Amino acid sequence: MIKELKFAALTAVIALTITGCASNPDSASSLAADAKQSETITQINNLKQAIDAANQKTTYGIEEELDWFATKEIKDANDALTEAKDYYAKFEFNPSEANSSTGFFSSTTNITAAEDGISKFNEHMTKAINIKAAALSALAEAFEYRTQLKKIDAQKYFPSTVKELEGDLKKLVDQVSNDKVEAAINSQPALIAKQRALEIKTVTAIYLTDAQKELDRLVKANTAQDAPKSLSQASASLTAAIAFVAAEPRSISKIELKAEEAIFSIKRAEQIALTVKKLKALQQKDYEDYIINYEKILFATSNALGADDSRDLSFEEQGKALVVFIEANLKDQEASIKAQQNLRKELKNQKSYTELLEEKISTLNTSLADVKKSLADLRSEKAAAEQATMEKAAKAKQVAAEQEKSKAEEAKVEAKAPAEIKTETEQAESTTPQ
Prior knowledge:
By secondary structure, the protein is an all-alpha fold. The chain has 13 helices and no strands. The longest helix has about 120 residues, at about 315-430. It is flat, with a radius of gyration of 55 Å.
């Protein structure tokens, strides 16, 4: 709205100026002034468009973090644009001030100073863009790690470290900005090592923190006293997960599986420790009831699966018998599944064959319909030809009959003619005087 008002005001001023000049349209001396004024208005309009374009570039620079990549250049660019706008404001609503001097002892006009400011702005912006491109190229690996750290939100877990690494990267970017590209490249490996370490640390915190807390809790609870082997296995599982993260911090799906395995081992160790504690707390008279409870669990499992009652065997043998039964049933189940798959395959093939037959039958039916149509067309054409032939023969017969009739009539005329001639002669002779 403000831009529209400014433009309207400028238009009014221009109109008034032109009207003033047009007050004496016959004056030849006013032509040079009119031409100069027209040139100034065009120059002002071009400058306004340049300022608008500069504002768009400023927005682009913010989006592209150019002030981070080329701090000095962006500062100088902003200063130049501000200066250009200040000079433009002096004649924005009064074009006659465009060519006024910027100072008492200066030969530079307001509009020239504004144009110089825009020119300097564009130069600094171009340099800033080039500096960013050079930095991204020379420090490509460091920026790739920077992107990865943002992706896993390292800032959330280790804000101070992220800030420190950002500062280190900024120093290298500043070196590129100051044409010390080789020095920046030589310093990059040390920064990358820190960035990778932070990535590993962050991924470990994200996916293995819960497992580490649970293991620490068991250690503090002196679980090793009751289940040292199981706790050792849990600790080894977590260590393996941490080592895997260090080797492949971006294999997230595998890391999640490793984390689940570690949690499982820790929970198993806890359950074994609790069971050992219960055993230690039992009195000798309660041993039998405790064993019978476990026997009930095995027996209930066997019943649910339909296996034989094997309680007359040791727990170890009962377990083996249950495993053998399950494996045998799984094999039968696999055979059944395979048979079902084969049957489905055969049915699918049969269906495909049937569909093929139906397609061929449909094609044959279409061809047969075409043949029938062709035959019908031929019969129709033959009937039409026969009809035409019959009509032609009838017409010929009629013509012949008419010709015969005509000939007969001509013969009668010829036979009658001599007799009529003789009678007429005799009549003539009788009427002639003797």
